[in-house]
Design a protein that fits this description.
This protein is α/β, with parallel strands linked by helices. Helix content is 45%, strand content 13%. It is built from 18 helices and 18 strands.
């Protein structure tokens, strides 16, 4: 079949059937890979508890230290070190929800966190963006909005995020701009930075407006998420500490993620780096439960190795995958939902970036991860958000989405009748068994999704990156924002205008 005929068939099929939603709610059917024995996991867990009891963590927030002291932690104000009794940690772990709903403005976009559910989140935090035509540059608010549109457009991306730092937006107003973009250009759960109570107060207020709810209703279920990175080794800075507290008090999802690079911010061994990260994660999770028992919180892992000659981080390595397997075991040891990442140290959307990202995904998904951050668009060790890489990653995520689908094995699927029909020396291309499944697959709602099966039509000798450039441009050209009540949109715009006039809110440092 020629490319033109295939394209016409795809268009006809898309017009005959509603858009597929099979990637919106993914369930991982595979048993998690284990790299450590149960005894080794227990040894690492006990060692982490020992670190917290003997050394503790430096907590730079007076508010955080006061909360921990009131709960019985040993606080040294002179050094700002806080030590936790193992019993306090164990008690906190009993109140962490094992599964929660992350509620979206569009109920069909609500995500389930925990169990066997898998959520893919886009890249977060790069100061730069890149595409084939304009090259690498500092991120702008226009770039940010375009990346939100891409995250909204593909069902295999389940939440929105801070996909670049829009440097052209003033820092005291930036949270207003990024929140407005997420809430008006998307209907998936948004991500808010933890940069102080002032900025979070604005973000939470805008989210309540978008959902049409009051504060009491807002606090009942999480409707947004944030990432808290500990300052490894053994330190929590002021905005991260207060962010954990604010998210807990408001019932929103916090992901406590130590960023441990073996040999740099953690012991050089995988077991040592994971144990330190485990201690820091336990500390943050305990803090969240002391602020509000039952607050939704996740165990985050981001452990990798470094190039010991340069000190630069390495991602998508065998060590990265092994660390993911081990982190998953530690998260299951304490019974808390687990976040991992897809990452690459590649500087261009090329083969290196693809195989490192896929190695990361194998580590996360075969390790039993519930939430994959940086799943689309990450480049250059997290310094750049790439438009082409975003599309290449979406394709890879859709492949995993297909891998998760059940494989039927009924007597009809086994195909004895097809074997009888074809007989010795024949072929199965035209067999009834084959043709029925070909028609079912080809003329299904799935063909309106950008997928791996025959997606590059009439493209000649273009590279995958060049084709991805066409896909993201076409996606943005066809983008339509999700429906929003006109009154709600006006209320959001009015809130932003009022807060700008009032001076916004400076980030907490």
């Amino acid at each position: 079949m020629t490319g033109r005929r295939r394209e016409s068939h795809r268009a006809a099929a898309a017009s005959q059937a509603p858009r597929s939603v099979r990637y919106r709610h993914l369930v991982n059917p595979f048993e998690p890979v284990r790299i450590f024995s149960a005894d080794q996991v227990e040894s690492m867990h006990l060692a982490a508890l020992g670190i917290l009891e003997r050394f503790g963590m430096r907590v730079l927030s007076p508010r955080g230290r006061a909360l921990l002291a009131s709960a019985g932690a040993a606080v040294d104000e002179a050094t700002q070190m806080v030590r936790l009794d193992p019993g306090m940690v164990a008690a906190a772990l009993t109140t962490v929800p094992r599964e929660v709903n992350l509620v979206a403005r569009n109920p069909e976009r609500t995500c389930r966190i925990g169990g066997r559910h898998v959520v893919f989140a886009p890249v977060a935090g790069p100061p730069s963006v890149n595409d084939l035509e304009r090259g690498k540059r500092s991120g702008t608010l226009a770039d940010y909005r375009d990346l939100v549109r891409l995250a909204q457009a593909f069902d295999v991306i389940h939440v929105l995020g801070q996909m670049t730092e829009p440097g052209d937006a003033p820092v005291h107003e930036r949270h207003l701009d990024t929140s407005l973009a997420q809430l008006t250009l998307g209907d998936k759960p948004p991500n808010f930075y933890s940069r102080g109570a002032g900025q979070l107060g604005d973000c939470f207020a805008m989210l309540r407006i978008a959902h049409g709810i009051d504060e009491e209703t807002f606090r009942r279920e999480p409707r947004c998420y944030s990432i808290c990175n500990t300052n490894s080794p053994l330190q929590l800075d002021l905005p991260m500490t207060d962010g954990i507290i604010e998210f807990a008090l408001n019932g929103q999802l916090m992901i406590v993620t130590p960023f441990t690079l073996a040999g740099a911010m953690a012991p050089i061994t995988i077991a040592g780096a994971l144990t330190l990260a485990h201690a820091e994660a336990l500390f943050g999770i305990t803090l969240s439960q002391l602020a509000r028992a039952g607050a939704p919180v996740m165990y985050g892992s981001f452990t990798s190795n470094v190039d010991m000659k340069s000190g630069s981080p390495a991602f998508g390595t065998p060590e990265y995958a092994k660390a993911a397997f081990g982190a998953g075991q530690l998260a299951r040891r304490i019974g808390v939902p687990w976040r991992c990442s897809s990452a690459t140290a590649g500087n261009a959307p090329d083969a290196q970036a693809a195989y490192e990202s896929q190695m990361s995904l194998w580590g996360a998904l075969l390790g039993g991860c519930h939430f994959v951050l940086h799943a689309a668009g990450w480049l250059e060790g997290g310094l750049t958000a790439s438009f082409e890489k975003f599309i290449l990653d979406v394709e890879m995520l859709q492949m995993f989405g297909e891998l998760f689908q059940p494989v039927p094995a009924s007597s009809d699927d086994i195909g004895i009748d097809a074997v009888a029909e074809v007989g010795p020396g024949g072929h199965f291309f035209a067999a009834a068994h084959t043709m029925q499944r070909y028609r079912d697959a080809f003329y299904s709602p799935l063909v309106s999704d950008w997928r791996n099966y025959g997606q590059w039509f009439d493209d000649g000798a273009k590279t995958a990156t060049q084709r991805a450039s066409t896909v993201w441009r076409n996606t943005l050209a066809a983008f339509q924002p999700p429906a929003m009540d006109a009154g709600v949109a006006e209320a959001l715009e009015a809130f932003v205008a009022r807060r700008r006039a009032e001076g916004g809110a400076p980030p907490q440092t």
